[in-house]
Amino acid sequence: MSEGYVDKAVELAAKYLASSSFAIALTGAGVSAESGIPTFRGKGGLWERYDPEEVATAEALRRNPELVWKLHVELMKIAFSARPNPAHAALAELEEVGVLKCVVTQNIDDLHRVAGSKCVVELHGNIKWVRCTSCTYRAKVKKPPEEVPPKCPVCGSLLRPDVVFFGEPLPESALRKAYDLCVKADVMLVVGTSAVVMPAGMLPHVVKEGGGRVIEVNLEPSAISPIADITILGKAGEVMPKIVAHVKKLLNR
Ligand code: NAD
Ligand code: ZN
Fold first, then answer.
1. Per-residue model confidence as pLDDT tens digits over 228-244
2. Residue 121 has what pLDDT?
C-alpha cells in the first residue's frame, strides 16, 4: 500500500469516526503483536512448540492438566510482562475523547484495560483470571501459579484459566453485549484480526447489516476485507495513532 493511499484512507477513516454517533472496535491478536505477543497464525515461538488444538481444550485439561497449565503459565508470563503499544493507547484515547464507545476483543492478554480502555468486552476470557472447575470460585491472579496444576482454595478441585478453550462456547453475557453493541454501532474499527474465528468474525457483518461502516486495519487482507468500507494495510501501532490524531484535529481537541 503506497504511503499516499494510506494517508488518504487514514483521513477518510478519521472523518467517519469523528462524525459517528456510536463507534466501536473489534480487536484480535494483531493489535498485541507489537507488544511482543505472538499471533496465532503468524510465526511465533509459542505456537510452534504447542499445538493449540491439543493443549487448549477442555478434554486436554481433563487428560493432562499439568501440560495444559504449563502452556497457560507461559501465556500468563507473556501477558503479565507485556506492555500496551501505541495501538492500545490510541484506542483508549479514542474512548477518552468520547468517540469510541467500547472495545470488543478476542484477546485474552488484558492489554486494553492496562492501556486505559474502560469499556472492554472480552469474548475469549482473560488469562489473568482463574476459575474452579467444580465450584463458583473465580479470581484475578497477580502472577502465574508456581505449582501446576493449581487447586481451588475453596473446594480443592482443579482450577482452570478463565479463557475460552477450543470447542467451548463463548461466555454468553460477553457475546450478548458484543452483539448489542454491533446492532447500535454506526462505525466499527476492526484491528488486527483475521476474522476467521467464529462467532467473533461475524460481528462486522452485524454492523454492516445495520447500515454501519467497517474500517479495517490489518497487516494483510482478511476475511472481512470484502465487506470493509476502508481497509488500511499496515501496523496497528503506526496506523491507529495517525487515525486518532486526525480525529482529534477534526474535533478540535
Ligand atoms: P489471528 O492470529 O488469526 O490474526 C492476526 C491478524 O492480525 C492477521 O489478520 C494479521 O494480518 C494481523 N496482524 C498481525 N500483526 C499485526 C500488526 N502489527 N498490526 C496490525 N495487524 C496485524 O488473530 P485473531 O483473529 O485474533 O484470532 C486468534 C485467536 O487466538 C483469537 O481468538 C484470540 O483469542 C487468540 N489469541 C490471542 C492472543 C492475545 O491475547 N494477544 C494472541 C494469540 C492468539
Ligand atoms: Zn472450587
1. 999 999 999 999 999 99
2. 98
Domain 1-36+83-124+170-253 coded CATH 3.40.50.1220:
yes
Q: Which residues pair with 129 in a beta bridge?
A: 140
For residue 137 the three cell numbers come to: 470460585
Q: Is 28 in the pocket of ligand 1 (CB under 6 A)?
A: yes
pTM for the full predicted model = 0.95
Q: Which atom of ligand 1 is nearest to the CA of 28?
A: 26
If you take atom 3 of ligand 1, which residue's CA is the nearest one? Answer: 194
- CATH number belonging to the domain at 38-81+126-163, selected among 3.30.2020.30, 3.30.360.10, 3.30.1600.10, 3.90.25.10: 3.30.1600.10
Query: How many whole angstroms separate alpha carbon 24 and alpha carbon 190?
Result: 9
CA of 159 to the centre of ligand 2 (A): 7
